[in-house]
Amino acid sequence: MTELGNIANGIRLYEGDARDVLPTLDSESVDAVVTDPPFKLSQAYTSNVDADNLSAVASLAWAAPEMLRICRPGAIAALFYDTRILPYAMDEMRRAGWTYLRALTLYRRWGAASKMLGWMSTSDFLLIYAKPGAKFQFHSADTKHDVYIRSSPEPESFGHPSQKPIACVEHIIDNVCPVGGVVLDPYAGTGTTLEAALNTGRRGIGVEINPAFATVIRSRVSRLEMPA
After folding, report:
1. Cα distance between residue 41 and residue 33, in whole Å
2. Could you tell me the pTM of the whole model?
3. CA geometry: angle 70, 86, 126, nearest 5 deg
């Protein structure tokens, strides 16, 4: 684990395994979690969850209770998750003590999609949870439909196979985290959540195990400044 420190105004980055980093973070120090846990990066995209991917899939078993500990009571967690193993994610979050609120959808309207069991796989779910102990609240007055539509690739690609649209993540953060609050992403990838946090006037904590992606995050986020 390497703490890369504040790479931009209000953004803290750790390079290493979230299993090592999360236990070092203070209890009830985070206002929201917005993350895209790993579930299918190590091999070809198929309808199977096979053995060499089980460690990635199973990471939520230890991450969910740690995220709960780190979050303040009433905090919201928003998780992108693959439809094929959705029941596993929901079971682990419930087991950790999170309260399920609802699911949103990210619909990819462009590009090729895999066919699975007679349907084209064009959507990811976004699971919304709250930590018990206080009344949860949403913060944005900008109400949208519960389907985010991705009509085209992102203007700038950072080389991640599951890069999420920055506008979508910005709206999520606007809604689940108070202005000036802290957003945690234990699986930071190439830093979309961290950039979105900074763009919307929040602070961020990111953890990324892949050194190449951590380098991308540093380059991507260090050029930005939190809005006044």
Report:
1. 21
2. 0.86
3. 60
